[in-house]
Amino acid sequence: MLDSRDLADPAVINTLHQIEKLGQEQYDTYVNERLVHQTKPITDPIKRNNLHIFSQPPVREKSRTQFQVLSLKNDCSLFSRLFIASQTRDGDLDEFFAHENQACPPALSQMGKIRLGTKSDLVGCLEGLITPRENDAASPPVEVMILDGAAIVNMLAPGNAKTFSEYASLIFLPYITSQLQHTSRVDIVWDEYFPDSLKAHTRKRRGKGTRRRVEPSSSIPGNWQAFLRIDENKVELFAFLATRIATTETEKQIIITNHQEVLCTQPRDVVGLAPCSHEEADTRILLHVQDAVRHQGKNFRYLAAHEMAMALGPNKCRGLPFFHAFTGCDTMSCFSGRGKKTAWETWKACDEVTDEVTTAFCTLAATPTISTVDDYMDSLERFVVLLYDRTSSQEHVNEARKHLFTQRSRSIEAIPPTREALRQHIKRAAYQAGFCWGLMMICTPELPSPSEWGWVQSDNGWGICWTTLPEATEACRQLITCGCKKGCKGQCKCVKAALQCTALCHCVGDCTR
Predict the structure, then answer these.
(1) Angstrom distance (rounded) from CA 122 to CA 4
(2) Of 35, 108, 473, 506, which sees the most CB atoms within 10 A?
(3) What is the DSSP string of 91-107?
(4) Which of left, alpha, beta for 509 (phi over 0: left; psi -120 to 50: alpha)?
(5) Is 269 left (phi over 0), alpha (psi -120 to 50) or beta?
(6) What is its main location (predicted)?
(7) Pairing state of beta strands 211-212 and 6-7?
(8) Using an 8 Å Cβ cutoff, are 380 and 72 in contact?
């Protein structure tokens, strides 16, 4: 729209670009089929186009309740079939619990997507390691302040600002200059938004918004949070704010990232800061911390982090990135009903017996390979078993799944994932901790393809490889059925599997062989 500078959805724009060509192709097809070659009668209906247009209603995804009802129906159907089959055949429960009952493991997925937890719970676990301070005034003065720009934008609503120019001059810039009163340098670091990002599916879950061009005179959208849900909006907004801040007249230093480069209010050497290909502000911030240490002198100490690290110990410090990824982050699922606090206590309990889990965490955070994932599978399986049942004697998750479901009456969502689903989860955690975070001190790290680490690429971007094994309905022998109509013979599925037919078969188990 010309007045608000709202932009149409990319699918609508593509329709407008292709609609004339599409119409011509369909006209030519109609003439050839009905008039020239007469392969179709002229009365045949013309297939309706399903084009994205302005009036087309948005595609609605299943609600949480609808998805839960569908899952329950599938589970009821699965266990009903298993019960009927067990009347004739000896069921193999070990085989059954080695497979997921759904394509997406309920222990790790939510409505077919990653199960998001509360990442900030880890802060409470770390704060519990140190004694609270009684007087913060005794803390040393701050020389450098490094801010997550996206967090500031989410925090600072437009208020009375009418345009993006007013937002920059009346809201954002005053906040940044106020921070300069307490320090000599402020760094602002933005997230990057790559088309093939592993975080794309997480961002989509935040909902849809309106695409609007960010220009100085463009009107501020009425719904600020909906505006910030669109990646393109944030890319333009961050670049706009970076340019405005870089022209601020101040004797102090403001350093702000602008895509792979950095802008500064005062001339300075930016080697070590740019060019930088990091996607997350969380990792790029540490490059700025490193730069601040190098330029601001040696008398520095971030007391809280220092004391936490001392209390945690060197081994657990090295294993912490893998623990954080393994128990849930932006690209990783958390375990159903098992948050970071529970996982933290489980880690402490494991350390009281053996350091195998800590060794696994450290190794996979430092030098991950597919072979090391397999080497530490047993240790991490035991950790997950204890995560779900602190008193369990089982060593492997498949055994624990069977025990918790049959003996403890746990629901499918309240038991661990299968061994193979857990293996894929471990690979994704190792990729995030060992590569995405492990190489954060390098400006332009070379990351391996996620396809080897629990991800699969499609036309819609990177998706999660939940498991490489088929679902229980396809894999369990006791659920094999045949469609024989005139007696079961050599081609019968049940005959091939050396199984007796059941009431689920087309012959309802009354066939003679």
Answers:
(1) 42
(2) 108
(3) --HHHHHTS-SSSS-TT
(4) left
(5) beta
(6) secreted
(7) antiparallel
(8) no
Q: Residue 86 corresponds to which amino acid?
A: S
In angstroms, the first-to-last Cα distance of the chain is 73
Number of H helices, E strands in the chain: 21, 10
Beta strands in 149-296 (DSSP E): 185-189, 211-212, 253-258, 261-264
Burial 375-406 (b: 16+ CB within 10 A, else e): ebbebbbbbbbbbbbeebebebbbbbbbbbbe
Kindly give the confidence (pLDDT) of every residue in the chain, 513 residues in length, as a single tens digit, with 9 standing for 90 and above: 445 556 666 777 777 788 888 888 888 888 888 888 888 888 888 888 877 776 555 556 666 676 666 776 777 777 777 777 777 777 778 888 899 988 889 999 987 888 888 988 998 898 888 876 554 545 567 889 999 999 999 999 999 999 999 999 999 999 999 999 889 999 999 999 988 888 877 776 666 777 888 999 999 998 999 999 889 999 999 999 999 999 998 989 999 999 999 999 999 999 999 999 999 999 999 999 989 887 654 444 444 677 888 889 999 999 999 999 999 998 999 999 999 999 999 999 998 888 999 999 999 999 899 999 999 999 999 999 999 999 999 999 999 999 998 889 898 889 999 999 999 999 999 999 999 999 999 999 999 999 999 999 988 889 999 999 998 878 788 788 888 877 788 788 888 888 888 888 888 877 765
DSSP 145-166: EEEEHHHHHHHS--TT--BHHH
Q: Which of 219, 201, 202, 199 has its CA nearest to residue 210?
A: 219
3 state DSSP class of 271: coil
Whole-number Cα distances in Å, 340 to 124, 137, 325, 371, 430? 10, 31, 10, 27, 17
Comparing CA positions, the residue from 179, 309, 198, 183 lying closest to residue 245 is 179
The identity of residue 177, as a single letter, is: T
Residue with tokens 């944030």: 234
CA 341 to each of CA 6, 7, 362, 414: distance values in angstroms, whole numbers, following the listed order: 44, 43, 19, 17
Distance CA 285, CA 257 (A): 10
Q: How far apart are CA 307 and CA 312, in angstroms?
A: 8
Residue burial 117-156, b: 16+ Cβ < 10 Å; e: rest: bebebbeebbeeebeeeeeeeeeeeeebbbbbbbebbeee
pTM, full prediction: 0.77
**Tokens (6 digits) for 485:** 């109509």
Q: What would the 3-class secondary structure string for 305-331 be? A: HHHHHHHHCHHHHHHHHHHHHHCCECC
